[in-house]
């Protein structure tokens, strides 16, 4: 495209809330035939709310357990953590217990010590890696919650799971239509998430994706590998994401697209930023880039 066409194209994009970093990015956007979209905060609102908090065994006051959970999560920046902290604040429990040896395990959960006792919160894998056995009853409870599209997390002390917390994150109003528009253009759409398979499929169904197009339980370091795998299949791939955990995949993609509502790291890595996080802008972006490129001749 001519420099003028590119200036007009990127200018038009910017006016519509689509920030494109230069002419090369715009040219690549015109060639996309596969789009990989992160779930949490991208397809969904990323404003999860706690729907269940269940203490296992007879541990006395559930709020004493909630205090510990919330104080740990207060040190995490994850949207799931924010949901738990807000819930605890609503219940007016203390969320400021002193935590030492805090550790955030990206894509898995958090860990920390309160009052000399170490706790882990997060996925089944994280808990089992600590050598803690999750009971069949707990696994069944979690799988039921997940089939309702919720993300369920385990809180464990050094011996056992002491609570289960479930969080629901609504799909953005426009996500389904946005995917429909991309499908209509012949673009293949995939969902990629660190969340579990059942939750992922439930959300996938809501936005019109079949389970073959849903990649779940993907660790952050593997998100980039999925994108690379599609590229190896001769696809011209865009990756859309909002989190720190998406940054490597954004970098590997032919076109990395960040949410303006997401983390700075994602935006710095990406070629394009959708300012409002509205996925309808994806289709607009491809139209815009194609129009600009057609001005070559
Ligand atoms: P996504 O790809 O959907 O944005 P992540 O890769 O960030 O998800 O996280 C994957 C999973 O790890 C979450 O679904 C959750 O079970 C667990 N997890 C991540 N961060 C936390 C946290 N701060 N507290 C508890 N669990 C967490
Ligand atoms: Mg995300």
UniProtKB/TrEMBL annotation:
This is P-type Cu(+) transporter. It comes from Vagococcus proximus. Belongs to the cation transport ATPase (P-type) (TC 3.A.3) family. Type IB subfamily. It is found in: Cell membrane; Endomembrane system. It comes from the Bacteria. The lineage of its organism: Bacteria, Bacillati, Bacillota, Bacilli, Lactobacillales.
